[in-house]
Amino acid sequence: MRILGIDEAGRGPVIGPLVIAGAMIEEGEMDILRELGVRDSKELSRERREEIFEELMKMEVRTTYHIIPPAIIDYYVEKGKLNYLEIKYSCKIIEELRPDRAVIDSFIRNSEKLKKMIYDRLSYKPELIVEIKADKKYPIVSAASIVAKVIRDREIEKIKEEVGVDFGSGYPSDERTIESLKDHYDILKDYVRKTWFTVRKIRDKRQKNIKDFFK
Fold it and tell me: RNase H type-2 domain spans which residues (predicted)?
């Protein structure tokens, strides 16, 4: 039986993409993931995530991922449909890899509702498991979370190199990220989620300062 795990990285940041990833393995090979030390990516150091990611690429683990840029995220947020964006790409991953069972880390409280929304959109009907914190319970979802996190980390490094600004993690809780938005917004704007409250607040303050300057 082919088992697929799906998870994301980067739903909350103000800078950079959202990455939704899938990892699939035969049920009988699941112990290999445990032996490798696969667990929720948030519990691993960046170095360890990279090591496990490289090992996964060498193993009989099929992986896929989608990198969703800020402009697309903003489009869905403006329509109040951010959850539908994740549903869309979760379905894409299932259709790409065609598992017998798919296990998804639920991104809404009502896991049963999410399960039905995904199930109804599929062209075929695999077994679906949708649970909150599935990345802690199912190694294959942990593997997907590692893939998503590593790919997002690499995308963030590419952005930093391109713009020449080390803006930290891109999360609103990161002081370096906030200071970078204040000081280098014009440089970073193509990679910023403009619908996020944190960004709107900074933009409004910048515009007010400009108006005050010309008074």
Answer: 1-208
96/24 same-domain check: yes
User: 7 labelled as ligand-binding?
Assistant: yes
pLDDT at 60: 80
Length of the chain: 215
Cα angle: 25, vertex 30, 34; to 5 degrees: 125
| Cα–Cα distance for residue pair 135/141, rounded to 1 Å | 5
**190 a known binding residue?**
no
* Beta carbons of 61 and 24 less than 8 angstroms apart: yes
Q: Which residues does the chain have with pLDDT short of 50? A: 208-215
Helical (H) or strand (E) element with 2? strand 2-9
CATH code for the domain in which residue 139 is found: 3.30.420.10
Q: Which residues share a beta bridge with 95? A: none
pTM: 0.91
Q: Quote the percentage of the chain above a pLDDT of 90.
A: 83
Q: Which residues contact 196 (CB under 8 A, 6 or more apart)?
A: 14, 172
Sorted by sequence, the CB contacts under 8 Å of residue 184 that are 6+ apart come out as: 163, 165, 167
Structure-token pair, residue 15: 């800078």
The pLDDT, as a whole number, for residue 65 is: 97
Helix (H), strand (E) counts: the chain? 9, 5
**Residue 166 assigned as binding residue:** no
pLDDT value at position 211? 41
Helix (H, G, I), strand (E, B) or coil at 65: strand
Q: Are residues 209 and 179 in the same domain?
A: yes
Q: Which domain holds residue 201?
A: 163-213
